[in-house]
Design brief:
8 copies of one chain form a homooctamer. Chain A is of the alpha/beta class. Chain A has helices at residues 11-15, 28-40, 52-57, 96-108, 124-129, 131-136, 149-155, 178-186, 200-216; strands at residues 21-22, 45-48, 64-66, 71-74, 85-90, 112-116, 140-144, 162-166, 192-194. A 5-stranded parallel sheet of chain A has the order 6-5-7-8-9, sandwiched between helices. A 4-stranded mixed sheet of chain A has the order 1-2-4-3, with helices on both faces.
Amino acid sequence: MERHTIFDWSRKARTGIPEAVFAEGKSLSHLHDVIRDHIDRNASLLITRLTPTQIDGLRDLPLSVDDLGRTATLEAPEPDHDAPVVAIVTAGTSDLSVAREAEVAANFMGLRTELIADVGVAGLWRLEAHLPALTAHRLIIAVAGMEGALFSVLAGLVTAPIIAVPTSVGYGVAKDGSVALGSALGGCAPGVVCVNIDNGFGAAAAAAKILNIAQAL
Amino acid sequence: MERHTIFDWSRKARTGIPEAVFAEGKSLSHLHDVIRDHIDRNASLLITRLTPTQIDGLRDLPLSVDDLGRTATLEAPEPDHDAPVVAIVTAGTSDLSVAREAEVAANFMGLRTELIADVGVAGLWRLEAHLPALTAHRLIIAVAGMEGALFSVLAGLVTAPIIAVPTSVGYGVAKDGSVALGSALGGCAPGVVCVNIDNGFGAAAAAAKILNIAQAL
Amino acid sequence: MERHTIFDWSRKARTGIPEAVFAEGKSLSHLHDVIRDHIDRNASLLITRLTPTQIDGLRDLPLSVDDLGRTATLEAPEPDHDAPVVAIVTAGTSDLSVAREAEVAANFMGLRTELIADVGVAGLWRLEAHLPALTAHRLIIAVAGMEGALFSVLAGLVTAPIIAVPTSVGYGVAKDGSVALGSALGGCAPGVVCVNIDNGFGAAAAAAKILNIAQAL
Amino acid sequence: MERHTIFDWSRKARTGIPEAVFAEGKSLSHLHDVIRDHIDRNASLLITRLTPTQIDGLRDLPLSVDDLGRTATLEAPEPDHDAPVVAIVTAGTSDLSVAREAEVAANFMGLRTELIADVGVAGLWRLEAHLPALTAHRLIIAVAGMEGALFSVLAGLVTAPIIAVPTSVGYGVAKDGSVALGSALGGCAPGVVCVNIDNGFGAAAAAAKILNIAQAL
Amino acid sequence: MERHTIFDWSRKARTGIPEAVFAEGKSLSHLHDVIRDHIDRNASLLITRLTPTQIDGLRDLPLSVDDLGRTATLEAPEPDHDAPVVAIVTAGTSDLSVAREAEVAANFMGLRTELIADVGVAGLWRLEAHLPALTAHRLIIAVAGMEGALFSVLAGLVTAPIIAVPTSVGYGVAKDGSVALGSALGGCAPGVVCVNIDNGFGAAAAAAKILNIAQAL
Amino acid sequence: MERHTIFDWSRKARTGIPEAVFAEGKSLSHLHDVIRDHIDRNASLLITRLTPTQIDGLRDLPLSVDDLGRTATLEAPEPDHDAPVVAIVTAGTSDLSVAREAEVAANFMGLRTELIADVGVAGLWRLEAHLPALTAHRLIIAVAGMEGALFSVLAGLVTAPIIAVPTSVGYGVAKDGSVALGSALGGCAPGVVCVNIDNGFGAAAAAAKILNIAQAL
Amino acid sequence: MERHTIFDWSRKARTGIPEAVFAEGKSLSHLHDVIRDHIDRNASLLITRLTPTQIDGLRDLPLSVDDLGRTATLEAPEPDHDAPVVAIVTAGTSDLSVAREAEVAANFMGLRTELIADVGVAGLWRLEAHLPALTAHRLIIAVAGMEGALFSVLAGLVTAPIIAVPTSVGYGVAKDGSVALGSALGGCAPGVVCVNIDNGFGAAAAAAKILNIAQAL
Amino acid sequence: MERHTIFDWSRKARTGIPEAVFAEGKSLSHLHDVIRDHIDRNASLLITRLTPTQIDGLRDLPLSVDDLGRTATLEAPEPDHDAPVVAIVTAGTSDLSVAREAEVAANFMGLRTELIADVGVAGLWRLEAHLPALTAHRLIIAVAGMEGALFSVLAGLVTAPIIAVPTSVGYGVAKDGSVALGSALGGCAPGVVCVNIDNGFGAAAAAAKILNIAQAL
């Protein structure tokens, strides 16, 4: 008596963002059904938060899988060569998984991306080396766990708005991302907005909506 | 031996946002000094989170005070008649104070604003009555306390990105705004980003940065 | 020296609700003993929160198992064809497990059920499509995780009382169901009452008691 | 530039519950405006969570004020002599304020009420003395702070459904009502549903909706 | 370079309680060394919080293992036939593991015990059936998870002091025992004292100290 | 329509502890009524948690008031000269208020007390100076705020059971007594039991019940 | 029956730090007694966390009061001109009160201090302007509220160890200093240690102990 | 498309501490790459928080592994025989893992160490036995879980500054180290500073910075 998702085929028209499948907690058979349905319709699809076990179980399907970002895409179109660009900045190596989810999702929604990794504030010179590049960007997704100091520091250095993605990287008081989230929300540097912990997809969706504004003018 | 803020006169050039004074916890004499300094320089100034007592203590100064929004401005220029517009939507009457802070701050930064009050989801027909107007906006600041259901509902109805401002309106489990904050971050409707509880100024600053992108293209 | 539950054979007479077995944390041999005892007495029985391993270990017994809802029943009578009906509404696919627990339990207690899945507020049109059906119901169990906006929205649209069941579906700030619980309790739409996170059984028991009132008049 | 609530005159028709005004945090002038508006229309009105200062400031208006319950009503009709009855039970003397809010609100919505005070479980004989009366009721609102043991105990003794209202009565770990709320939600006695801490109005609204079901059959 | 516990051989003389080994997180080799050391000295020993894996790994040693209570003892003397008695009461079947830890530990310290299981308040008649026996006891250890209502109810019925042991039995808001702990501490029935969640050993140690007072008079 | 407490005149017979009045949040007129009722009956009475304002308002009544402990008693009998003794130990000067509540309550229940103040572990020599006296006691109430290290240290030094009373003395992470409570429950020194934060009365009640055991043998 | 602190006259000899009086929650008469006692003995004294009301009440005594830092000293010796120096750095104007407490306390313990205010990371150029001075210091006390990003940034720039003092400056998620505390503890920049929220005195005491090491070599 | 850490070869010159690799959550192939890179350069390296599985996977590399401390080092130089010494004190056997991480890291940074284990305050005589040795030390790292009373007790006994490392050893309220952390921060014994829960490496890094001050004089 299992029921399946009634897929929201008109979502993109209504909200500007194609519906994606959040894989966590879903059964393999459910995922197979959704994917095959899209294959049959020649529709593109984005799946996020796949576990390694789920990725193994979908190996027989024609998906483009990103192990680091735990994503899979079907028939994902390349972003136009003149599409708007969002910069994705990470504080540490361990934040790369969430950053990749944001990158794959942003590409899927038609944005080009530039990923700048490992510029955490504990070594401020690394951030400064990338400042000229960062200053040129019109929108930045910043991905950081632990104490999340990157968000405030970056906001004091660039004029672009920053979408903060706190990650669950950390331990002790910083476990589960709550300190990084607090830093994203509780700082005084203006221009920082925030999405849920580890929500790379949400950051990409917000970026797509923000940059589409710019395009539409 | 009291020390005063070294005012950051070049902030706007560097980050695109003029520095504002957060009045909470500051002494009247400190506020007087900062304001007179700006009067002497013919500089504009925005002050937020003024208590009624502080507002009374500043009555002798040529400030433009908004009691509801607890803000004061000095030499605030009118937004250009063709400046970009941000919609500000509130769930309930009690959220108006934070919404006014956002409105005054947005105007101060050069944006025009349209305030749409009292469209909480408990009376969904009120929201629907404003939907045509909302759909036309390119950016929406949504202000809601209690359970914050407005954020998700709105994000499912419009294509514009939404800056959620949770407010500390509520009691019991919803006291201090934590449930509204959770709803802003924890929903699955894409396109919602969030600022700190009651941070109307921060939402305006993010809006100014986002819409300036659009302008600059 | 293991001890067993002294089963409460007269519970239904006293409180109107048959005792059920909460399987989580119980050993297989304990469950076997309870079930066989009921088989010997030709008694009906409801078991909830079975793990997949426990379900496997009970395959040899004449139980009616619902894998999705993680329930098993023994000699469960069909609800009368004119029994009162409770609607069970879910926000997302991932909430279906808890909704099924509620449905199986409600049926076991003699209620008929109508399950309406996937009407989360991020796609408000899905909810609106079901509104005529929902408006006709006299009691609604609403099952939602993440930000739990469904509870307030629904309460603003229908006159029936709503039993909210927050689910542990979600991540980051919404992990473990705390935000959905906050939304169920902290909203201002009157007519919403709440049970524990993931407590589909409890919602069904309350529904049975409420609708039995109606029957008894 | 103060804005006022657009009163929801059709709310009762739509949801079965008349809109009430939550006074906490509202200015006296705002309350005056809303009340005079209702006087002009000969409309009835319920105001909850009034502070002593607000009550003093409204003395000149023809309101029926309940100091203990912090409520005021305007043109509240008496419940019909054969209207359904809800029992309201409190654990301690300090819970009476919230119980009175529930009672006034229930009366305002057309229910008769029976208030049974001070039957906390620390003196179980007090509860038992009222058991015959309680058993006869079809719906019970239970109001308790501190550890909230009343909810579970009552649910094990009666067949009626119970609407639990945790109160913020308590100190130390029980401060702000969180333990009582936990007990309302976390117990295993079936038939208990819960509203927000101190939300007597919400309990009354749910009771009105539940008992109207029964009436409508 | 592993270091081992310097066993506190004189602890009992100093504090009245023999030192016990808390097995959680300790390696099998470490446990073996400690146990053999006691065997060599003909010393008695109590080990608590053994995992099933640890229990398997110690099968070759002459220990008296209690699987339900997750304890093992070495050379545990029988309590004297006229030793003081502590009653151990549990709310539900799932609380039995912690109750057994308390029982084994109390016996090890020289107390006799009487275990009364499954008298949770959801079925108050079960508690009342045992009341004559309970009233006769001079000290009661009460073990309960979920909402922990047993502590307050019991304290209102008997004159003996009660040592409350909240257990981590429960889910949703009651997960990890925090609600039961809150109920143990936040109730108003005098005579309840509390130990840490799941700390059966600690309850037994306190009981031994309290009853030794009585003995020593 | 205010209702008053139905006083529990037979409580002492039933539970061994006379009922006391917790004054916090109660109106002066309510307190006056309860006190006069006891004066009329020549009954003794204990009132705890009086605010300075309440104490002022009761000056006309023949009460024995303790300002530091915020208690008042009526017709409190002196403990017998050979009554059992409980030691009351405080970590710091700021814990004296709670300690006095415990002392007054213990005296009221018939125990003699010895108060040993200011023996916090930051100056361990102060505790050691009192060790001979403490070792002679059969039961100790330990009162400590901040980090609550006194509980564990004391339990390692004496054989008597210890009733820990965490206090709300402290700031930052230790605000409201949660760290002291955690230390009382989370330590490994056996023989420590705990009551709610600031609950001096509860500690006295438990002491009276425990020492009455001893007396009764 | 009020009791007074037994002052710990030999504390400095034992622990290297003179005992100070924490004024919060202490009565004026108690403070007067302690101060006069020190005047009579020609002893020096430090009092911290004075409220404005307490400061007013002590005006008649020969104290050296710092209103901003809420401290008072008696007979405080000047630090030697070649005493070790600790730098005290604050993120914002609102952190100055806690920084002054640290400065007064450090001076009282014999250290010289250099206060560098308003170098928060939102304007990183302000921090960089002071970097040469900061790099020359051997120990830094960093004082910051809100998101506390200063701690990590500073630790990545200097070789000196940093004592972080989170302050309760902030609102929403950053209220009460919990986010700043999390950032002080949860960052990955090595060399940061932390004291309690708002504990300027504790930071000074640790600095005195650390620099005394250096002196003693 | 996996990216690797850009190793910070100049970190030691800049901040005085060599960069270490935090292994938790990193893939084996990533760790292999980093290690081989260091082997090729004849560079020394410290790796912390290795899981047993990771340790197994690195067996083929010429690392010096400490299973208890979960660390590995490459080409770690021996501390000079006259290098400064830091004492490392643990409360219990279960805290030894974190203490070993601190010891290995301190040695790696050039400090000599003296490890004194199992001196928890529940057996104060054990601590006192080591007091002469402890008093001679100029800096102490104290490692304790559960209620963390060791920090305050030690600070009252010695003049050296103390770096507190709370550990996640404990259960119930003390689970995950939060009570030990609260005790480290919330005590009143001056001279205690704190690092994150389980952060032995951070304590060592702070110790190295502090003692290098002393050396540099």
